Amino acid sequence: MNTTEYNFDALVGPTHHFAGLGLGNLASQAHRHDKSNPRAAALQGLAKMRLLMDMGVPQAVLPPHDRPDIAALRRLGFTGDDAAVLDRAYRDDPDAFAACCSASSMWAANAATVCPAVDAPDGLLHIAPANLVTQFHRTLEVPTTVRIFRRIFADDSRFVVHAPLPAAFDLADEGAANHIRLAAAPDAPGIHLFAYGRAPGQASSNPAAVGPPTDISGSPQFRRALPGAMRQIPRQSLAASHAVARRFGLPAERVVFARQAPEVIDAGVFHNDVIALSHRNLMLYHQRAYLGSSAIIDRLADHLGDALHLICIHDTDISLDEAVASYFFNSQLVTSPDAPDQMTLIAPAECSTLDRPRQLIEHLVADTDNPITRARFIDINESMHNGGGPACLRLRIPLSEPDRDALGANVILTPDLADQLEAVINKYYRTELTLDDLRDPALRAESRAALDEFSTLLNLPDLIQ
User: pLDDT grade, residue 27 (50/70/90)?
Assistant: First the structure.
């Protein structure tokens, strides 16, 4: 049955702010405590969705989560009415306070890993929500994400929404940001590449690998044990990747596990989608992305043969530091229905202003040996400053026409729906936000009013708990 890839983008929430919460995320840390513009952030994300929709690329939307998370702050021991909880948390533990206000659900690529029906033994579309245990603020997303997915994909004759993996550091799972699927044709069975940063045995039991107190997210904290002299925490574990592949029922010959090179993680490649990108049968990756790259490529080629189109980007094309600074590899590759054999690169605006990323893109577009025929540069500056590019904002989900008809919510983007979402953003979102502003009870009221209207528009009740 014909399937079409839908991009499910998450709306940026009204509490979007720069708290530098992203461990190992250089952009997030660099803009810590800058003033944010939640309205601009949400409108920039919506403009990207409109662009793809106007290109004929199927587009869907996910709602923001209810923030500040007062219930989480109460679990941390803060008491009193809601205003008192916010004020006391701000004063006593600003990092926990910022985490409970985070709008990080905007990066939908971390929400789940997806297996299309054509690859699953039971013929159903599988969605495995990530547990996101590496960082406190992201763990808060998981219950709402599961609830939203089970509402949208409620038809159990077509969809399976798994429970997240157990919330254990050894099973750290960060979703589709560390997963690539390649297939010879849109409806052909694919091969799945799971990228991971930490192998078994790299847990906190190795005291020799533990460094001194390090200020990563703003407050001193001890690093977990890391392989060798690594400075950053690898987010995805091999055990989690194995478990997700087993849940999907993927046969061993259609799975490749690729270990990220420690040096790239230390350079700011906290997820695989900061160093590799793919669409259909095309994959671009940096030469330093993985340990044992040649064996990984051989496995992919064994499955796809001549249909596989691989482009290795060398240091001479773009350095590791330039890749991280520009988020070139966090671009999206998309195909329009009117030109199914041609791909468009949706790249962050930063790639047009930095010389080597721009030159690399110009070369890729001019090269007739690959299917990339044009590039579009988009301004998502607010997301970029918080550490997420175009691909971070979306989760790819392949749907057949009956799948689409079975969706349990009004999440497929149309021009009318986009206009309505934009009106809500302009009505409730602030144009300037600091950490101090997040304790304002009026902001929580504004955020909940916006979420209530999003809930009605998307037919997703009970977003506010």
Answer: low
Q: Quick check: 252 pLDDT over 90? A: yes
Tell whether the model's pLDDT for residue 45 goes beyond 50: yes
Q: What digits encode the pLDDT tens for the residues 430-441?
A: 999 999 999 999
The reply to whether 101 belongs to the active site is: no
How many C-beta atoms surround the C-beta of residue 315 within 10 A?
12
The arithmetic mean of pLDDT across residues 271-280, rounded, is 97
Mean pLDDT along residues 350-361: 96
DSSP secondary structure letter of residue 166: P
CATH number at residue 394: 3.75.10.20
Residue 78 resides in a domain:
no
- 228: confidence class by pLDDT, cuts 50, 70, 90: low
State the alpha helices, DSSP H only, in 386-461. Answer: 401-406, 415-428, 441-458
| Residue 81, in any domain of the structure | no
Q: Which of 16, 100, 162, 174 is catalytic?
A: 174
Q: Are 201 and 126 in contact (CB under 8 A)?
A: no
Average pLDDT for residues 93-100, to the nearest whole number? 96
| Structural domain for 181, as ranges | 3-67+102-458
Residue 91 lies in a domain: no
Handedness of CA 370, 371, 373, 375 (dihedral sign): negative
Catalytic residue selected from 100, 192, 392, 446: 392
**Is 385 among the residues known to form the active site?**
no
Residue 268 lies in a domain: yes
Counted domains in the chain: 1
Q: At 243, is the pLDDT very low, low, confident or very high (cuts 50, 70, 90)?
A: very high
Q: Does position 341 have pLDDT exceeding 70, yes or no? A: yes
Q: Let me know: does 304 contact 182? Beta carbons within 8 Å.
A: yes
Question: For residue 87, what are the contacts with CB-CB under 8 A and spacing of at least 6?
Answer: 439
Active-site hit among 65, 192, 271, 303: 271
Sign, CA dihedral 187-191-192-195, equals negative
Cα 416-104-421 angle, rounded to 5 deg: 10
Instruction: Reply yes or no on whether 392 is catalytic.
Output: yes
**Half-sphere exposure at residue 163, Cβ-oriented, CA atoms within 13 angstroms:** 3
Please list, in sequence order, all residues whose beta carbon lies within 8 angstroms of the beta carbon of residue 363, skipping any fewer than 6 positions away: 317
